[in-house]
Amino acid sequence: MVAIKTNVRWENFQAARETLGKVLHTLQDFYSHSNWVELGYTEPYINLIRPDLPLENLADVNTATCSDCASGTCPNPILPNILKEKKLTSGYMGIFSSAKPKGKCSHGGEGDLTSTTVPRGGINKDERRSDNVAFHTAAVNAAVAASLQLLEDIRLAVGDNDFLRMMGIARSSVVCFVIDTTGSMSDDIDEARAVVYEIIDSKKGTQDEPSEYILVPFNDPSFGPMIRTTDPDKMKKEISKLKATGGGDIPEMCLSGLQLALTGAPALSYIYVFTDAIAKDIALKDTIAALIRRTKSTVSYLMTGASRRRRRSIRAASFDDYKDLALASGGQAIQVSKRQLPEATDIIIDTSTSALVTVLQRARHPGKQETFPFMLDESLQNVTIYITGTSITFTLTNPAGVSQSNTEASGKLGTIKTVGNLRRIRLSADKLTGTWQLNIKSNQPYTLKVTGQSTITFIYDFVESFKGPHPGYAVLSGRPQTGQPATLMVSVMGRKGPSSMTVGNIGLITVSGPEAVSNSTMTDMGNGDILVTVDEVPEGEFVVILKGTDKVSNSEFQRQSTTQMSVSKVNIQAVVDSSVEPGEAFKLPFRVMTQGPGGQYSINARNDRNFPMSYPNSLTLTTGQYTNNTLTITPPASTPSGTDITLTMEAKSSSGVDSNYVVMRLSVVSKVTKHTSERVK
After folding, report:
1. Is there a single domain that holds both residue 554 and residue 496?
2. According to the model, what pLDDT value does residue 494 have?
3. Which residues form the Hemicentin/VWA7 galactose-binding domain (predicted)?
4. Are 534 and 565 spatial neighbours (Cβ–Cβ below 8 Å)?
5. Do 27 and 94 reside in the same domain of the chain?
6. Are residues 555 and 645 in the same domain?
């Protein structure tokens, strides 16, 4: 609770929300795993969330608490004297051992080895059974009431607005600017300022007003701080302060600024990077790619200048690195002259809106002539097509056979605007529904993206199943494994809820490869949640594609995710199970395994606070076997309580061909000393 409230005050909302999930799990488990409801209590135990109130009347280790239940289905095995004296206890759980203190209750269930040790049986109320209906219902009601009590406690402490931000509830997008402030960027800063002013002035008070503004300046060697606000006038004031100074040796700390934005902004944010220089900190590229995959944020670059820069010996950085990251996130890499920049910023206006969806996204490298079909449904509004590349011609054709070529700036189907390497096609409002086609001709690399506004959409996570007393699915914090089925949890939303749409197919498709969609099996989990299993995962980078029918208009639709993913033979695992104390070394166990060739694998770790860390630079892996090791991170003693740390770890084969990553959040919390006689200071 201390960590949650402190993180909210520091505006570390993602860290607060993740901690909240852990806390709620523990809180709800109390009512299922203890004898609270067997003792006759119906209200929540407030002492659990109040550090100034002690946990009282606990059965000590030598006090027997349960009677033997040979059948395992006894209604209430708690001993009469425990019930009479209102002694609080819980069940022992043994995953690897059946041992427990004499006379103690067990958790119970197939996964609990102690449940076969006298006293047998168990007291958990996790599931509704014929022998525990009343206690299960009472535990559920108490857990719900306790959860509401905890949430209300947090809401009163942090206020309504920050509470909603912590919960990730916002009606529109977050707009984030990462701006190069070196000496040559004066014109670019002026244009970024003008765009922010236009967004604020045109959308203030409307449903498309951004829910939050974030600004991250970067220079050389400095970057940051991150400035975030929900107040549009404050953002105007902050961006008006930016001045172009310093720099001089060309490459700048672009990726450090982007890392700060990706770790601080909410997931699914739109991030715009303004720069005229290549990255000096190119070593961060793999970390940035991991953070993009983790957050599913969309990164677009507005690059001025021709990238004729001195190359560093550490790594040959170029504007192509920015193009790679933009494509991986589903963003755009727009290359224009400084004079053209004001014309290229329409894309920011387009995407700083509500209910933005992607209909289609493709990339070709090298370029070739190809026809791309895509489905437009009745719900879509403000449909816009973006094509980036050079030496491109194209023809757009609607379902009725009416066409418009790239030479018609204003035609029967819409308006076309060309600036730098970007072509932006805004379709007319009276567009036809059905299958459209876009034929592109170019021998140079190009990207294609079709977007619109619609409440028919979906969100997803790659997940993995886990066993134990509470089997289920957990979000995968890395790339899915090669040679195994990929599992996704997809949540769909229709115009009038999930029931107003029919899902036809959910699959994986490569952005840069052939159109073949992988087959999948779907299991309806209820409330719009669908468990999807894909047996054969495509080679290379892929995205999720969903097709179905909108029952409201009886029109077919298609939607696509934007963040690219790929499989890996490497698996790296680490779990953060506690907070970190200022000035104390925190040990984080991790393990790495490969299904590919064994040998030396490099280990690389970075944290966004630059706190000192120690870990092995490499591990020797044997195919199919996990190798264990430990990373140590030590926040300085002066680190404020509530600071969150985003830690990224990567394991890479010696050839560099295969790698995988894990992204974790750690909270720095000063140790709380509990006093029974006075409130904690």
Report:
1. yes
2. 92
3. 357-455
4. no
5. yes
6. no
Single-letter residue type at 491: S
- Residue from 546, 352, 567 nearest 459 by CA: 546
pTM for the model: 0.83
Mean pLDDT (the chain) is 90
Indicate the number of domains in the chain: 5
Residue 681 lies in a domain: no
- Residue 345 sits in a domain whose CATH number is 3.40.50.410
**Residue 679 covered by a domain:** no
Among candidate residues 354, 373, 389, the one where a domain is terminated: 354
User: How is residue 252 written in tokens?
Assistant: 């700048």
pLDDT digit string, tens, across residues 643-658: 889 999 999 999 888 9
Examine the domain organization and report whether 506 and 603 are in the same domain.
no
Where does the pLDDT of residue 248 fall: very low under 50, low under 70, confident under 90, or very high at 90 and above? Answer: low
Give residue 314's pLDDT. 41
* CA atoms of 287 and 279, how far apart (whole Å): 14
Residues 270 and 354: beta-carbon distance below 8 Å: no
> Of 144, 166, 188, which residue sits at a domain end?
166
Residue with tokens 């000393």: 673
Would you state the structure tokens that stand for residue 440, as one six-digit string?
A: 């592109």
506 pLDDT band, cuts 50/70/90, is very high
DSSP letter at 228? E
Q: Is 430 exposed, middle or buried (0-12, 13-18, 19+ CB in 10 A)?
A: exposed
Domain around 412 = 355-453
Give 45-70 pLDDT, tens digit per residue: 999 998 889 999 999 999 999 999 99
- The answer to whether 493 and 457 are in contact (CB under 8 A) is yes
What pLDDT does residue 315 have? Answer: 53
pLDDT for res 283: 87
Shared domain for 214 and 76, answered yes or no, is no
Residues 6+ apart with CB under 8 A from 49: 1, 27, 146, 149, 150, 153
Nearest to 7 by CA among 146, 162, 152: 162
What is the distance between the alpha carbons of residues 254 and 214, in angstroms, rounded to a whole number? 16
- Do 555 and 581 lie in a common domain? no
Q: How confident is the model at residue 93 (pLDDT cuts 50, 70, 90)?
A: very high
Cis peptide before 225 (omega within 30 of 0): yes
